Amino acid sequence: MDIRKVAVLGAGVMGSGIAAHLSNAGIPVTLLDIVPEGATDRNVIASGALARLLKAQPAAFMDKRNARLVTVGNLEDDLDRLADADWIIEVVIERADIKRELYRRVDGVRKADAIVSSNTSTIPLAVLTDGMPETMRRNFMITHFFNPPRYMRLLEMVAGPDTRPEALETVRAFADRALGKGVVDGKDTPGFIGNRIGIYWMQCALTEAMRLGLSVEEADAVGGRPMGIPKTGVFGLLDLVGLDLMPNILASMDATLASDDEVRDYFEIPPLVTRMIAGGYTGRKGKGGFYRINRQGGDKVKESIDLESGEYHPLSKARLASLAAARHGGLKALVEHPDRGGVYARRVLTRTLAYAASLVGTIADDIVAIDTAMRLGYNWRYGPFELIDRLGVPWLVAALEEDGRTVPDYLRRADGRSCYRVEGGRRHFLATDAAYRPIERADGIVLLEDIKLAGRPLAANASASLWDIGDGVACLEYHTKMNSADPGILEMLLKAIEVVPRAHRALVIYNEGENFSVGANLGLILFAANIAAWGEIEASVRKGQETYKALKYAPFPVVGAPSGMALGGGCEVLLHCDAIEAHAESYIGLVEAGVGLIPAWGGCTEMLARWAANPRLPRGPMPAVAKVFETISVATVAKSAAEAKSLGFMRPKDGITMNRERLLAAAKARALELAADYQPPEPPEFRLPGPSGRSALGLVVESFRRLGKASAHDAVVAEALATVLSGGDSDATEMLGEDDLLALERAAFMRLVREPATIARIEHMLETGRPLRN
């Protein structure tokens, strides 16, 4: 059975978000909700939700045009629309009686093989199916999405004893390939996997911070990045999900958890939190939460709450010796430090990890499922058992014994051994029977992390490595900080051009970092500028141009496979590839204007060539120039791979892969397809408007400057960009080649990098991570 149409019942934050993400997969969706009493527009809840989705930040739709796939209605008049739905997802209020009544009505209109699932996070499946006909139980399951559905990759799937295996496989395959989800099988237990551990962790972290007298900033600094947890830490996360949800979740778990479950140690809601909820301080959706933005006096001042007094004060940076210890000595140095930050880290980590270990076999069959759930559902860099390995099983057992806490059976059976190990070039996990078993990948998933365990690179330096990924395809992996482009990466690109033809047919540029590449290393540019090494800077610009050009005309196809940010030089390398196979969550753009520069590794040239060949633009040199100028001058970044196509960073025929873990396999397949009869591209030629075009663009910039939409240095950067894109002093009668445009890029870059305002922008970006408007 294929899923071609879906219905979502419930248009709240989760339901509407699920509907939006289904539309991102190209699936028509019916979104229904109740009819409010006295409403003149009977669809007002669903239509209002759709309107909010179009304005949501972060964006719910990968392309706003996807909203056309969502049809709104209501549960009284439009239930018959479910008759042709292949999958019906219930996302209504967390009350079993309301859900069961809705299922009764759904069963009267659904087609016989339609799959029905609940997005519940708190109600056991056995409760939901109580009294349900056997014909519907066979097609019923829990599919628990995490919020926001577009961005959070976890989907927990819970089956009942009567659920058809075929129905489970249909949803699993669709969620994996079409929605990009990491599907994890959970058991019918309270909170399933992610929330069972996540609620314990959040309540433990909140309570222990108060007990130890930490500030909000200190607790989040300790309990965030040093542990591989997002920088929001626990207080920022509670603000994000909403403080008012916690009492409801805890009440639900209280009704279903065993009386001796350790999460009950942290069930009490602190009086401060109760007062905050009562006062409307429920987090980001309310007046604020543990953090808030104070707009009094016209300024925006970020504040945090004092956990003892309940008063707000401006944020202060956490300054704990344990944080400094963690930066140098890692996680174990943090938890062994004697200050209150170290004590806090030890309490939260040891108790959370022990709780996770106590649930192996209860909430999931193995530790791989639990680790995957916490990575994909809570954005932890490491799952609980990967964190245990970073501390060491013997260390954790000793710490629990020292604190007088129970050591879980799983850790006892480990007998000092690690939770994971590498054997025979494969990663294995410690199963509940104390035997190691290999981690199995689903069909069609190829991960570089697995390939790297089994072999050595074809070539490597400190910045990048070249790997054989089979079938005559090589893969170039960046591994600098944030995968920023530096001389080492340029060196490895040239090395790949030399090595690949010897025994390979194609090259894929890909990595498994958080970001594909954030662009050129600004620190190196700033250092060279500060010592007036202008010749070195120009040589590096020329080297980048020559390297990317050599890549473009290599005697084999090159496929770029980005995920996350591909900015500046990271975007430019993609522009020089023969094809792109992008993860759907790729954020591609030429952002050099934000630091007072222009793209100078061929970015301007390649974008001009693409838009000049675009049949949708009017003929003549100016339309393409204006389009590229508009995109680059304001440092436009595509908010998805789909948007990257509309902006010209990707071609119409470039591919988009929804599941991050399937990206390398898809890119490899594309490379092999191109290799069958590959010929390098023909060099482009340009007919550009020259000084008249530059003047026209200048008038636009000046109007923006007068309106306050462009700063003084924005105008300087825009003038340099206009010079490049209009072809310098040439006119529309001349044909310019690729090298002519590259020379203009290089000259403009060198003029701008000498500007004090550009240096100020670079310094500000390196210090704050944000652009300076000067």
Features:
774 residues; alpha/beta; Rossmann fold; 4 domains; eight-stranded mixed beta sheet; 30 helices; 25 strands; globular
Structural topology:
Layout (H helix, E strand, L loop, with lengths): L5 E4 L3 H12 L4 E5 L10 H12 L14 E5 L12 E4 L5 H12 L7 E4 L6 H4 L5 H4 L2 E6 L8 E6 L5 H13 L4 E4 L8 H19 L3 H7 L10 H9 L3 H12 L14 H8 L12 E4 L6 E5 L6 E3 L6 H15 L4 H19 L8 H12 L5 H8 L1 H10 L6 H6 L5 E4 L2 E5 L5 E3 L9 H7 L4 E2 L3 E5 L4 E6 L8 H17 L2 E4 L12 H9 L3 H19 L5 E3 L3 E4 L1 H7 L3 E5 L2 E4 L13 H10 L8 H13 L7 H7 L7 E3 L5 H13 L9 E2 L4 H16 L5 H14 L10 E2 H16 L2 H13 L6
Parallel strand pairs: 1-2, 1-4, 2-3, 4-5, 5-6, 7-8, 17-18, 18-19, 19-21, 20-22, 21-23
Antiparallel strand pairs: 6-7, 9-10, 10-11, 12-13, 13-14, 15-16, 16-17, 24-25
Helix pairs in contact: 1-2, 7-13, 8-9, 12-13, 13-15, 19-21, 20-30, 21-29, 23-24, 24-28, 27-28, 28-29
3D structure, described in words:
With 774 residues, this protein is an alpha/beta fold. It folds into four domains: 6-185, NAD(P)-binding Rossmann-like Domain (Rossmann fold, 3-Layer(aba) Sandwich); 194-430, N-(1-d-carboxylethyl)-l-norvaline Dehydrogenase, domain 2, CATH 1.10.1040; 448-591 and 637-670, 2-enoyl-CoA Hydratase, Chain A, domain 1, CATH 3.90.226.10; 595-635 and 682-774, no CATH class. The protein is built from 30 helices and 25 strands. It has an eight-stranded mixed sheet, sandwiched between helices. Helix 1 (13-24) packs across helix 2, helix 8 packs across helix 9 and helix 20 (522-530) packs across helix 30.
